[in-house]
Amino acid sequence: MAFKISQIIAAIGPAKFEGDPNFTVEAPASLQDAGTQNITLFSNEKYAEQAAGTKAGCLLTAEKLAHLAASFKGNKIIVPHIQEAWAKLLGLWDRELSEQPWGIDPKAVVSRTVRLGKNVSIGAMTVIEDRVVIGDGAVIYPQCFLGRGVIIGADTVIYPQVVIRERCKIGSHVIIHPGVVIGADGYGYYPANGKHVKIPQIGTVEIGDDVEIGANVTIDRATMGATRIGSGTKIDNLVQIAHNVQIGKNCLIVAQSGIAGSSVLGDGVILGGQAGVGDHIEIAAGTIVGGGAGVIGDVKEKDVLWGTPARNHRQVMRLLALYYKLPEINEAVKKLLKTANLKEPAGKH
Amino acid sequence: MAFKISQIIAAIGPAKFEGDPNFTVEAPASLQDAGTQNITLFSNEKYAEQAAGTKAGCLLTAEKLAHLAASFKGNKIIVPHIQEAWAKLLGLWDRELSEQPWGIDPKAVVSRTVRLGKNVSIGAMTVIEDRVVIGDGAVIYPQCFLGRGVIIGADTVIYPQVVIRERCKIGSHVIIHPGVVIGADGYGYYPANGKHVKIPQIGTVEIGDDVEIGANVTIDRATMGATRIGSGTKIDNLVQIAHNVQIGKNCLIVAQSGIAGSSVLGDGVILGGQAGVGDHIEIAAGTIVGGGAGVIGDVKEKDVLWGTPARNHRQVMRLLALYYKLPEINEAVKKLLKTANLKEPAGKH
Amino acid sequence: MAFKISQIIAAIGPAKFEGDPNFTVEAPASLQDAGTQNITLFSNEKYAEQAAGTKAGCLLTAEKLAHLAASFKGNKIIVPHIQEAWAKLLGLWDRELSEQPWGIDPKAVVSRTVRLGKNVSIGAMTVIEDRVVIGDGAVIYPQCFLGRGVIIGADTVIYPQVVIRERCKIGSHVIIHPGVVIGADGYGYYPANGKHVKIPQIGTVEIGDDVEIGANVTIDRATMGATRIGSGTKIDNLVQIAHNVQIGKNCLIVAQSGIAGSSVLGDGVILGGQAGVGDHIEIAAGTIVGGGAGVIGDVKEKDVLWGTPARNHRQVMRLLALYYKLPEINEAVKKLLKTANLKEPAGKH
What we know:
Three copies of one chain form a homotrimer. Chain A has five helices and 39 strands. The first copy, chain A, is flat. The interface between A and B is large, with 65 and 68 residues.
């Protein structure tokens, strides 16, 4: 799978170029791993030294970094938007490497009442129950389960071993990675005689368009109504989203974070890895919650939060600096007590 | 799927009613979403305003909240136990929406040595190995795996893509959500020459009756003996339960929490979301561990804990208040040092 | 499944023995659970009392603990390396209990272009796509998915419902537990017009030899190049490993911990349960990160870390001791202010 530099430039958009446009590269590689058959990326000034010394056959860099790569004398592509250019370049190889649609595998189990769009692919051992509707161009890999009445939008890709329980709706251009469970019962009980009695969960899950959902994520169905994920939101692996949660558009929910029941995230919220959000909490649009933080109250205005309980990031850093100063504070207090001829107060643990 | 109010009242038990018992509702909905075709719930005084303004065709509320809903003039059901009544109401729709038992799917792979109770359902692509025993009325969805000698109790429901490895025992009336793995090897090694050598895990897992296990939960088999989950315990999504853990009856283990090897939780313990319990720890019955807390020592008496290392909740709150006061404490110490004409002690970071 | 004590001693290596070598035991059991038909383990002096009182038919203990078990008068095996001996003993039963290789199940779906070694087993409903290569003696349980071009080493065991996406490489003698997802797309986007645009993930995952991967773990494929797990590393359940992470040899990655993109762990690193490592971080070989800790910066030299942000464990304990002393420090400051006739400074929250 090789591309000429001229093909690459055609794919990535506006660029300056120094070198031989007929030079051919076989694969993208990192600055360190690249050889003459590779094209590589220099997008962070931290790696200027490696860029100067790379053995790559072609270097892609940004206009603002080009001066740092001046000593690299091979083929050089210089672009205004480096991330976009690199993503498009990777896309060239991705198209070659990707699975092509294969139609309906005879070993899939598809109910006769299912409505299929055009050019749908369904993999072996996938089970699709009554009245499911699948949009044009959708690709369902092997070993998935779609319960009764599930709706899948056009061009959505569902990787192997995904479970979507009954009546949940998935938008268009959605990507669902392996092991995801959508629409399991929410976690709801009422107490009676020292036991926990199950509250039926008759709601559903509704996923917008252009959403991506990472491997082994769980998104529970609502008690009633729907748990909702807004269009353009990207969810990383092993995230937990509880019943009746409402997530806005274009949010980033990083790996292993969890959102408890009925909480509401505005558009563009970012949750760092392993962050937690309590139940019935509202988080203002555009808020960033740092990794591992625990949000236990409403965030009424856009903010950057960290720690548990989560607070404004600058306050957290200021308090942390004083926390690290505790040995000195303690020494000073001891000295002052001595000077003032006072006893230390009795312990109160 | 519509019910007359008289049918609903018959299902939920003792209630006062104002309005037309022949009025028909199509579905439950929230105060905000409800229209005349819906029945809605008013169970929290925080939402009194929405209750007054709801467009629902019927309102269900509690005796002690009824005065706050006085301005709602439509059909009104007033009950003593609101959560129980609402759960029973949802159950009416749940029964209609639920999958009906379907018998043994011809595309299931069931060993001839399996012993099946009456009215068992087994879904397509499920694999059931030698000498498995399945109780009356149990429902096994598609694509599950039950290893040799697994025992499943009566009326237990196992959703798609659950793995239960060999010789594990599941009680009656248990619900296991998709993606759960029961009986994978515990995480045990001994060091030898700088490497980690596997300790065989020959034990099993034993799950009591009326247990519910959330999506993508992992419960490891014991090194020897059994990892045990007591009857009535409810486990949320993505929880990790290590080998030889013993969990009591009627516990609540909220999403993404984890319990390390050989720890013992008494009856009725509650672990909040993302909480962690170290290995070989005992937690007294009735203890509540807050979300994100890390328990690293025994909890000998029933307590409410939070933070890492987890401590009594009130102590944690008191210390946190002083932590937030560190800027003032630091200022005061500086002023005192100045007044006393003392230097600040050298840093000791 | 019973063994004579003489057979057990033959299996576990050098040992002293007191009693009847023809005595037969049926199963290993804990000190408390054991009866005359059981062999039990006494490996921790904490349990000396239980050892003295156990009803086991045979006791295995270490040379250095033997004096504490002097009052136990039954069959007694005394060994120099207790963990190794016990692991070998459990292995006797494990071999009896384990599934035997079964060949290629006719209900597996195996592409004609797959290359199979000798004595390979493949379970029902497993789907193996084009050009997969599987080494001698490998065992693939039912309902797995191996994408195009995946390579599996000799004697590797893959439990049910594992997904390995295209082109990933798995070493020899690897154990992969149920529900694991290897090679899902890394979590990478670039911002454009307030949206997140997917960066294609064209790399792979490479797993060394003798690696063990716990249930429902997720290991993402690299953007380019490979996410790598070194030989001998053992990963517990529900761990998240992001794209381009490089993990050294013989590491221990305990349950629910997570490692963000491009981070590098040296050989022998230990991550405790629920620990988190930020992106682009390097952790020196031999470093131990405590449970729940959050590593947000490079660890340049071998260290023992705890807390968030993670710091040297001793420093953390010292600061924590002062934190618990805050009530006294606060009291002392108040008293000093009073003595010095100064006002408390105004709040600065």
